Amino acid sequence: LTADADGAWSYTLTADDVTAMGEGDESITITATDAAGNTSSTTTKAISVDTVAPTAPTIGDVTADNVINGAEQTTSLSGTAEANASVSVSLGGLTKALTADAQGAWSYSLTADDVTAMGEGDESITITATDAAGNTSTTTTKAISVDTVAATVSTSALDAAENGTAVGVIETSEAATVTLAETNDSGLFSLSEGVLTLNTAQDFESDATSLTVDFDLVDTAGNTSTDSITVNITDVNEAPTTAPIVAQTAVVDQAFSLDTTTAFSDVDAGDTLTYSIVGDLPAGLTFADGVISGTATATTAATDIKVTATDSGGLTATQTVSVAVVSEPVITTALSSLGEQMLDVRSNIVLQVDQAVSAVEGKSITFTDNTAEGYQGETNKNSFTIDVTSDLVTIDNDKGLIIIDVDANFDLDLASNYTMSIDTGAFLNSASGYATVEFSDVSFNTVTPTSGEDNLSGLGETDTDASIAKFLPDYLLTDAGAIYAGFPEALQLAGAGLAWDSLTEAEQSEYLVVTTAAQSVAMSTTDGSLVDSAQWVDIEGLGVGTTSGNVASLAADIASGNVFKIDASSADYVFVFSDQNPAGGDSEVGAGLETNTDFSVFLDEFGAGDQVYVDDAFNDADNLNVLSYEVFASGNGSEGAELYLGLSGGDGDPRLYVGLEGDTESTDESGNADNSLEGVNGALGLDDDSSVVITA
After folding, report:
1. Which residues have a Cβ under 8 Å from the Cβ of 321 and sit 6 or more positions away?
2. What are the φ and ψ backbone dihedral angles of 629, each rounded to 5 degrees?
3. What is the rounded (10 degree) CA torsion for 214, 219, 223, 226?
4. How far from the centroid of its chain's Cα atoms is residue 581's Cα?
5. pLDDT over 70 at 201, yes or no
6. What is the arithmetic mean of pLDDT over 413-442?
7. Separation between Cα atoms, residue 158 and residue 38, nearest integer Å
8. What confidence tens digit (pLDDT) does each residue in 655-675 have?
9. Which of 375, 380, 652, 692 is positioned for an S-S bond with 414, CB 3.0–4.6 A?
């Protein structure tokens, strides 16, 4: 350089000069040379060269999994920079000035206010370090996600149709785990993978129609919240319902009205039903707005009318009502359909009436015995007439039955044909004023007991020959049986018999024929129908008799044929013999029973459903035998000591041995039963006008 006239000089360093100088402290040497060439030098340390930026700052791991949520409002930031450098940390709208320590470390804990200033969302962290020379270095990193807002249910109110369980999908404002709370109506619902359903279908008409469902939510940041929606149960049109309409009877020339609408209902509030019918109403009756009304002009048989109720949505319900028109009460009886079946002589006689009636004074029901020779050849005809107002006639209008009580005072005769007649007008419909019309006489047969050893052998046991005969038609359809198709029946049965032996018990069971006695039927006092009663067995002449009177010898007497054994376990049996002494007996000493033939019978397994029945039809009405004076007994009923009944008097020595069902023993500890036959199951009774029944 050259000093000016005043000796001053100056120079501005360029960037190239600084680069040439190098980093660090530099000494400045100044040398002045005058015109004569004299020099003078000065050396001084005056300049420090610093052109290198500070070390780039760093940031350590951010706590709280790099996420700040509503539950945790603070998190710590830390890192390194150049020693003693100024550090500026910026996160979104937040800037913090810090100073690194002598080792270059720096840190800062964010406050709740800092988080608020930062705002919601992902934040980039920018760190700037400035050294003493003013050199800077900056690092930017995306390290913190701020989530302080909890999730909410974004699904609006849902509708659920009644009678179903489907509701809808639950959506949220952000990803979150959603569970049902335990408050309000939440217990009525289930939630699976976001799908809400009802546990049980709700009914719009009877259940609550607005339900509040509460939810617990946890978002991915861990923020928790509760929210709720309303589920509205919506109405679904349901078909009308109906109840049975009892059969109706209109009376000719009398006003009739039936409101069928009372048999229909609709749960849908405000729904209106309209009514229609299918079927022809009796003449004089019309249908309008669900009501059948009018005045019938002629009798008609019961006619089914279908009444249909239709709701506003077109759904229907149909009910059938039977309408008949009568002018007078009509009596019928199942006796008219008895056919080849035989009536139990102990059965009540049951009539069926189509209207509620009452008995008319002075009218009768008559039973006429048409049989010249009945059971065991008896010729006394047992006809009788009953006043319909007597205690023997019961009218049950609820069941539509008239029950004629047949009891021990007037049993029907065995093996007889009867005609039943009913006086015209015997019963009156008090509502209509009409009496019963003329009744057509009905004839029927009473039971004829099965008799004879051949017919009674094997009673209750399988009849193998009859079973094979029943099997034969099916056997002939088989390949093996077809071979016999052209042969006489005897050979066909022989072939079927060989095949029968090879069948299993289960296969044979379809064809088994059991030896039975005469099956009787009785009339049900519930509905007047015919139901199976007991099987009847005639024990006259069975066995050749024994004079030992010793129960201990019973087995030997049976083995020798002296006593005929009958197993009473397979059905309810009535064992019959007749008292043919026309003079009856004396009430003090007894006159003895006279049987047609002697008998000596052992009734084994005699139970509560079995009975010994003495036909007294041979006796004069004024000289009835008092049976309780004609029977003596011994044995206590136990095994080996069966009850022994001896019938005193008469020409023979009729005897019954009774083995009680289940080895029932008499309460008479002496082993001798008195005339009350205490401990005996079953009964010993008389028919016709006898009043004596000896029972256990």
Report:
1. 245, 246, 247, 248, 258, 260, 292, 304, 305, 307
2. -95, 0
3. -10
4. 61
5. yes
6. 91
7. 107
8. 788 887 775 555 544 433 333
9. 375
